[in-house]
Design goal:
With 218 residues, chain A is mostly beta strands. Chain A has no helices and 21 strands. Chain B folds into three domains: 3-195, Alpha Horseshoe (Serine Threonine Protein Phosphatase 5, Tetratricopeptide repeat), CATH 1.25.40; 200-325, Winged helix-like DNA-binding domain superfamily/Winged helix DNA-binding domain (Arc Repressor Mutant, subunit A), CATH 1.10.10; 333-398, Arc Repressor Mutant, subunit A, CATH 1.10.10. Helices cover 55% and strands 11% of the residues of chain B. In chain B, a hairpin with a 4-residue loop joins β4 and β5 (240-242). Classes of the chains: A mainly beta (218), B alpha+beta (406). Chains A and B meet through loops of A and α1 and α5 of B. Chain A: It comes from Stella humosa.
Chain lengths: 218, 406
């Protein structure tokens, strides 16, 4: 396993009316982050919140190319980003113990916080297709270049780690500086990860290590 | 944090503990236990809250030292509010050190305030003040600031320093309004009312008049010889002589002080000090002995002059003699005199000091408690008694958020 220290590229926030960031995703233009009772669209170049959607937003956020998915209490809401309307909802696999969420290859990948698991979920029905075990509390999940990454934040220790989607083995870890935690994770497709900063109310961009693509197949 | 914990924590922060409970009622993981504990404390079930917080502290993992420390602080506050002195101060101290080391200055300050409130409760004023004196590195949130000023006011009142007490209560009131917690504002107002109620009666020259606390302070600071029937001491500018364990001597001193500059007849002194209807020779002999003892006790402050009728008091330094009494003379004045020193007394210690049986003291304490003039905390042999009210004990719990940052 390769461990590196996180390189903070940029810090966004604090934002007015935001006391904590619970989930992040990226739609190619805006970074959406969940802040309890709304989803906020952050322009990563300007650093401003362009608009927001009033919707319960207690944990992970994901984007499938057309819709936003948002964990609220023990449900996953499917939201039209244009109108802000909730189009559908499915039960969350962790029954409310859910934390991070990502979309990849037709499935939702939902981190179960203290359950230390990542569930692959059918986005139409909420059926659990399979479960990956981690050895740490899971706070954010993302897929990029065929590699599965998740955030961990246990007490004072937090990192972003790449795990083997078959075995759960840790392949690489990026350690966050002391006092900074990851409460949501999304890759922008380039060399950045966006990380939610929990109660700091901030979103941080950190560098994604080069040559960290996955083994393919996904 | 996970989604339901986030939702429950938001409900709790918004002042809706029932909504918080609804979301985590069936969960037994550490953050859920902690949230349930805080919610139960806010709903007033302190016993259940304590159990839940203790379980939460045990359930947090080895990497979650801060979350565990916050649980310890919350449990300590519940123990304090329920006057349970069995609380191990060492655990709170350790929790405070952990919070400080991890930069959680607000909750570290909260832990320090709880320690100071406990020290005030057991009458260790200097230690309480010292604990509060450690400067906080950050501006405190208003609710915590209000609690801190309440403790400072409590210390100042116990020391009869009304100026600093009033200033602290004013600052506490402002902070409580800033915090926008009506219960806290009401509590500060109730504490401040002690400054506007008669705290004692002054008996001088055959006249009695009620005194506010500030006037009591002024009398004690004056150059009069004060026979203080609230605390059973005789004091002047130089010396304080306690007669709390010598009720006969105190009764004589008070009778002589009330008559000053006149004298008091032997018959009257015998009646007052021994409760005898008619003074016979043996009473007169006993009076001579007790007067001799009082002379010895007050030697630095006054002389006792024999007159044709009886005895008169003559202060050595003081320009006048006054008696300070409780606003209303009431039963069990002896017990109240001991409690007025601000210490926490056990009933056995009171019985020893008063030279009476523990049963008698217990009966007196129960009556005083029923009348709201005494308050007990602790259980069994650890039970201690104090006089209320002492500001500094907000019943409005200011529990720290016991959740990990994520």
């Amino acid at each position: 396993m390769k461990t590196t220290a996180a390189e903070i590229l940029r810090e966004y926030g604090p934002f007015s009316g935001v006391d904590a960031v619970h989930g992040v995703t990226f739609d190619g233009q805006h970074v959406w982050f969940a802040s309890g009772d709304r989803l906020n669209a952050l322009d990563p170049a300007g650093g401003q919140v362009a608009r927001s959607i009033d919707v319960p937003a207690h944990a992970g956020t994901a984007f499938d190319g057309r819709h936003l998915f948002q964990i609220a209490e023990d449900r996953i809401l499917k939201i039209d980003p244009e109108s802000g309307q909730v189009l559908a909802s499915i039960p969350a696999p962790g029954q409310g113990g859910d934390s991070g969420m990502a979309w990849a290859e037709g499935s939702l990948w939902v981190g179960q916080h203290r359950g230390r698991k990542i569930h692959q979920v059918d986005p139409e029905t909420g059926t659990i297709l399979r479960t990956i075990e981690s050895d740490r509390v899971v706070t954010g999940v993302t897929w990029v270049d065929g590699a599965l990454w998740h955030g961990t934040w246990e007490g004072e220790d937090s990192d972003v780690r790449r795990i083997d989607p078959e075995t759960g083995a840790v392949l690489a870890a990026i350690e966050m500086p002391a006092g900074m935690g990851v409460s949501g994770l999304e890759a922008d497709g380039g060399d950045r990860f966006f990380c939610g900063g929990g109660k700091s109310g901030r979103v941080r961009a950190i560098r994604r290590p080069a040559g960290s693509s996955g083994t393919g197949g996904r | 944090m996970d989604s339901l914990i986030t939702a429950a924590a938001r409900a709790l922060a918004a002042g809706d503990p029932l909504a918080a409970l609804k979301r985590v009622a069936l969960r037994d993981d550490a953050p859920a236990l902690a949230l349930r504990g805080i919610a139960m404390a806010q709903l007033g079930d302190l016993a259940r809250a304590k159990v839940l917080l203790r379980r939460a502290a045990r359930a947090f993992g080895p990497r979650e030292a801060v979350a565990r420390a916050r649980c310890v602080v919350a449990e300590a506050e519940i123990a304090l509010v329920s006057r349970d002195l069995g609380w191990p101060a060492r655990a709170l101290d350790a929790a405070r050190a952990i919070l400080l080391a991890h930069g959680d200055h607000v909750n570290a300050a909260q832990a320090r305030h709880i320690e100071a409130r406990r020290l005030l409760l057991i009458g260790r004023l200097d230690a309480a003040e010292e604990r509060l004196g450690e400067p906080a590195p950050l501006p405190l949130p208003p609710a915590l600031l209000a609690a801190r000023e309440m403790v400072l006011a409590g210390i100042a009142l116990r020391r009869l320093r009304t100026g600093p007490a009033r200033a602290a209560l004013e600052r506490a009131g402002q902070a409580a309004r800033d915090a926008d917690i009506p219960a806290l504002t009401a509590e500060v107002a109730a504490a401040a009312s002690v400054l506007h109620r008669p705290a004692a009666r002054l008996i001088a020259g055959g006249q009695a008049r009620p005194l506010l606390l500030a006037a009591v302070e002024a009398v004690l600071a004056s150059d009069a010889l004060v026979v203080d029937a609230c605390r059973h001491v005789v004091r002047d500018a130089g010396v304080v002589v306690s007669l709390a364990t010598r009720p006969v001597l105190f009764a004589l001193a008070r009778a002589l002080a009330e008559a000053w500059p006149g004298d008091v007849s032997r018959d009257r002194l015998v009646r007052l000090a021994f409760g005898a209807k008619v003074a016979d020779e043996s009473h007169r002999a006993r009076l001579r002995v007790e007067i001799g003892r009082l002379r010895a006790a007050l030697r630095a402050q006054a002389t006792l002059r024999a007159t044709s009728q009886g005895f008169a008091l003559a202060p050595r330094r003081a320009s006048e003699v006054v008696v300070l009494a409780r606003p209303v003379e009431e039963a069990h004045a002896g017990v109240l005199a001991f409690l007025a020193d601000g210490e926490a007394w056990s009933s056995s210690a009171l019985a020893l000091a008063l030279g009476t049986s523990q049963r008698t003291v217990q009966r007196a304490l129960d009556e005083l408690a029923a009348a709201g003039k005494a308050q007990a905390f602790g259980h069994g042999r650890a039970r201690r008694w104090v006089t209320p009210p002492v500001p500094g004990f907000t019943t409005t719990l200011l529990l720290p958020g016991p959740l990990p940052g994520g």
